[in-house]
Design goal:
By secondary structure, the chain is an alpha/beta fold. It is built from 20 helices and 13 strands. The chain has helices spanning 11-21, 26-36, 44-51, 56-74, 113-126, 145-156, 176-184, 199-205, 214-218, 220-226, 243-261, 280-283, 291-304, 318-325, 362-371, 381-385, 389-396, 402-419, 423-438, 442-456, and strands at residues 77-87, 93-94, 130-135, 158-159, 162-163, 166-170, 190-191, 206-208, 232-235, 267-269, 309-312, 331-333, 375-377. An eight-stranded parallel beta barrel has the order 1-3-6-7-9-10-11-12, surrounded by six helices. It has a two-stranded antiparallel sheet with strand order 2-8.
Length: 464
Amino acid sequence: MAAETADFIQNDAIDQVLHDGLSKDAVRVREVLAKARELKGLEMKEVAALMSISDPELLGELFEAARFIKDEIYGNRLVLFAPLYVSNLCGNECLYCAFRASNKALQRRALSQEEVAAEVENLIDQGHKRVLLVAGESYPEEGFNYILKCIDTVYKTKKSHGEIRRVNVNVAPLKAEEFKQLKDAEIGTYQVFQETYHRETYARVHTGGKKKDYDWRATAMDRAMEAGIDDVGIGILFGLADWRFEIMALMQHIRHLEKNYGVGPHTVSVPRLEPACGSDMASQPPFPVSDIDFRKLVAILRLAVPYTGIIMSTRENPNIRRETFALGVSQISAGSRTNPGGYAEEEEYDMSQFSLGDHRPVDEVIRDVAKLGYIPSFCTGCYRLGRTGADFMDLAKPGLIKNHCGVNAVSTFVEYLEDYASLETKAVGNAAIEKSMNEMPPELRERTQAMVDRVRGGEHDVYV
């Protein structure tokens, strides 16, 4: 039975753990780091011990442990996607967001299905295969059916040999029957962020609309999982409350899902507040997170929930994004626009949700990623073969998922290089692929080579 109140977020327990656990004992920190390397995750008290790290030597050891875990589980692949904003209509009053209902400085727009198709064609031309469909928390007159139509349009839109193979969705929390409709629409991951788990802060920054209801939002994943959506994504908007409290509450949410549904979230997102049209709070966060603390919290999350994907958006600048790849990030957006129609049209006025830190085109991001030694992955095979939820974890935890993900990453990257890459990116990418394949065990390298040969021979959508 899905939870109706978020009693799994227990402030007193968090306060107690933070009080007891924030130790500067180097021996204790190193014990926790050693346990983390066993790839079994950490408990709240152990996470608290890592939050206290300020010594440069211990910080280096934390980052090295995060690199080790990232490499062991995810290898050198980095999944790419793009957000697709279809509407900025919203009925909520979130003081940090440009989409809030009372913001008269923002031009409102909900894309028609023809306009959605135009956006998708543009994303296909960039080489994307996976999108995150995003909408403000209000819809045109047709209601939630608008979102279902948009998903259908994305899947039906083709251009030459290109297509979007998986639609993930970030929309307002739904009723159980609506989640079932979303499941039937064949989405990948359902994503929604609590923004802040601190109840007092939540009430202070959400002053109107359905989003005022803390419990309705926090229990959205219960309803989604009850409806059969076993890949869910959660997240925090860092800057609204103390990041240490937020990480602890996030851990409580994750353990609640694991206890009740057998599997935690597929992804965790870690956006920081960025300037937004008409919002003073967005430009002056109540609890700003420094770059060093941001890197630290990413690394701590990688240790705490080793098999959960960490998503880094284009809110962050290229340097921060590069640094966090090694610390645990496994998915990134590229070439993003956060306004409806932003891909197909030049923006004449402000319709975006927040400011971007990384404005580089997709081809440049991919070239940069490959130069750093990563394989950009456009794979959607797990979704389409049913390797989701607990089934994904059953393969991931023994290390077996590498036999699928590593191979598919190379195959989909080759497809991108053959169809969309600039000559410079193609040269850099092919060198990265050669190096990656040379480091594979012989049997896996042979399987990968066979798939690469098929793609270079003209086949598309080759995966295992």
